[in-house]
């Protein structure tokens, strides 16, 4: 009996160990040197399944932007695979996050003149959007009067839950979904089998809204009488209304986006024949992985090296310094600015004082009726001050307007907590970190967001007059707001945390209170309790800025089919504007002070000027390879990114000599006395012209350029120049961000080709 019991126990333990070993399995992305495939295997898949893992564990095979596969492996299996001489690298799958009608005009786009007419609105260009899918029935995606699908398109329309081939048309030319990485991850401690079909569609259909919004921002058709519950009414249209859309659903509702799926989407999009890729996704941890461990950087390199422009969002962790993500120099990294439209609401206290804020509340107004004010945070309980779920005492808040602090939970969810506890309204107060940066929300109760100064003043009035009361007055939509653009306080800031020699972000575009199409699956707040349906929604984030640049790239590519991705980015950067609509230097929303290139990069996108930039700073694959050599990546590491073996030159190149349209001069922080650095740049011109240099040196810095004149002719289309930046540490005073800023422009009487210059003292990383 006892020996039988022992055997049972032993078998049970064995089973438990096997189950827990399986449970420690996770998705690994494996980079293979494909040139070493033995010829006995007909395909790479046969080789991978014979030599490295069983067919059942393989999720994706990559063969275009990346060579290798992703598979479900235990750490032990992954370690043994790594020992194989053909394996260049292996890294764990990671979850990433989305960087959640007037903006085309605000970019300097006017009808029938300039860029829109010259490019036939980008009708031959295909934009691939990597996001949460699309709601194809929206008017923004009509194919009325569009020509046939471009012949070079090789993509497909994948069918799935509530998505048939009929959902693609001449506007949405292709749609795919990528869920294997997501399903493998959810199988552990998540929903077994991966996709929660009660809230998601296993198809390209959008259950979240974000993807529909970004796709229509880049390329939505004209939609008349567009609004979000009456707010921002007018004509909604994307930046490139005739461009075609290819949808790659890589992000899943409430679950983020997995690297293995993103990489598979890059692989597919490049094979399908897209011209532009728009990716409003980043690693939300504020820490950027090195390029060889970052599938967005790797996938984007594969795309850019084949002439596809990739636009990415900078992230929403501003105004903290060094918060910018998506840093690879082949990516175009986009921050967010405001537009000249706002949705003002006022908090009016019983002493007559008025505080201005922002709201998109569209329900029954308060009609000037005063209600008692309460601030649950005065108890000192953090969850109550933030109006977190179940933190409010109904006896305290019933029938009152509740002051809630911003942070930790979604802004609209706080209003729902107040509503459930019996409150009649909410004042949402920014903390110090958000400063005066406000975004509109479609609140479910009468609510108004106010900046931290206003919030503090309202709280101190309540503390001194416990019987205080207030009301909220909603003022609808106001256009012609000045100043605009202003750098949004949430927009992620430089310097670049991986390679400060490359200034990031590259530029900013409209990203605050942007009206665009929305899904039918959820209400405008995305909350389960929000049963409203809306054709359009108003969102803010660098997620919204990125597709503005994708649409702009489509128009530029349509007008200049021979331009490389680097030339398109250069045209946008060197013509970007630095002033707002009051003709003053652009401000930073969080500090109310003039913004710097760490906030806006080269400036705010100005499409009319980008059409004819004069000179461009071009880059080839070889330039990027020598940059990777310069930052001391070894040949094997570089091959992970570039797919082909490389040899770095004997003389190590300098990373700052990458032919980038901006210049960052880094001096060691301990340096004393006079020190100087010289940079080389090469510009390409398309017409005969003579350019002269104009220098605005950073404060306390000497900048010289040789030669000071560039003469282009029929035979001379490319010319180089040297820039020498000299500092005297005795006279150099860096500003709050630890740098000083200036610029260098080449001027021919018609064009101004401007590059920002950043000078900083920094310890080498």
UniProtKB/TrEMBL annotation:
Residues 122-589 form the Peptidase S8/S53 domain. GO terms for molecular function: serine-type endopeptidase activity. Residues 371-458 form the PA domain. The keyword Signal applies. Residues 27-99 form the Inhibitor I9 domain. Keywords: Glycoprotein, Hydrolase, Protease, Serine protease, Signal. PROSITE patterns: SUBTILASE, SUBTILASE_SER. It holds the Pfam family Inhibitor_I9. Residues 657-759 form the Subtilisin-like protease fibronectin type-III domain. GO terms for biological process: proteolysis. Residues 1-21 form the signal peptide. The active site is at 131 (charge relay system), 210 (charge relay system), 543 (charge relay system). The keyword Signal applies. Belongs to the peptidase S8 family. This is Subtilisin-like protease SBT1.6. The lineage of its organism: Eukaryota, Viridiplantae, Streptophyta, Embryophyta, Tracheophyta.
